[in-house]
Structures are given as C-alpha cells and as structure tokens.
Amino acid sequence: MNDQTHSPTNAMPPRVHRSKERGFTLIELIVVVTIVGILAGLAMVNLKNMQRKAREAALKDNLTTMRKAIDNFYADKQHYPANLEELKPNYIHSIPKDPITGQTDWEEIREDPLSLEGSEQPPAETDPQATSEPGVVDVKSKAPGATLDNVPYSEL
Question: Domain ranges in the chain?
Fold first, then answer.
C-alpha cells in the first residue's frame, strides 16, 4: 500500500456542526403553521360577525326610514297610510328589503289612532279618512331569530 493515499493531507474535512447550518427545524415550521392557522380562524369568525353586524345596521336604518315616512305621511294627511305602498313615491322612493330575510314583506302594525288611550275627538280640519280607517302606525321585521345583542328582530 501506498502511504500517500492515507496521508492526513488527503483526508476529508471534518463535518460542520449542525448548529451552524442555516434553515428551520421541523418543530419551528409546525409552530409557525399552527399560529397562522389560529389567526386565520379568528379572522374568519370576525368576518362572519362583521357581515351580520352590517345586516343588522341596515335593518335598523331601513326601519327608521320607513317609520319617518309613516310619520311624515301622518303629518301631511292626518291619517296613517292604509299600507306601505301608499308611502311611495312621495314619502319613500321604494319599500326596502329586509336585509335579514331578503324580502320586502314587513310586518305592518295597524292601529286605529282614535282608539288609543287618552285620545279625544279629532279637530274639524282632520281628514275624514282618519276617522274611518285604521292605518299602518309602525313597521317591524318578520325575520326569525335575534341580533348579536340578543334582541329579537321583531322588537327592533
């Protein structure tokens, strides 16, 4: 055998220690993926609640708009409208959809203004229709369920 082939000058360099290598360990990658997954899950829950909050805000706004239109109708004509369609086009452009149900089928609360407690005889200048027909005095949602604040939609 030749001594030159086994000489220390031809020997392989020693392996570099693992701590000096660059990169991530499998444990580090698992921890990062888990954290990202948890954050994504929280974002999805918040997104769902934000959509529901937006629908509830739109419902409250639609109810306020229709109630103002009913009040304005009564202020002008001294009687309540027979139905919500009577508010169009002078008091409200169109009957809005309930953002919860997606329908325009609102619950019309009818009441005879003369039958209310403490009411007196109408003045002479009151519209004669006010004494003959009860009208829509309020409007409510027909949506089942409750808001995020646990208030039934029918009580808004």
Answer: 54-146
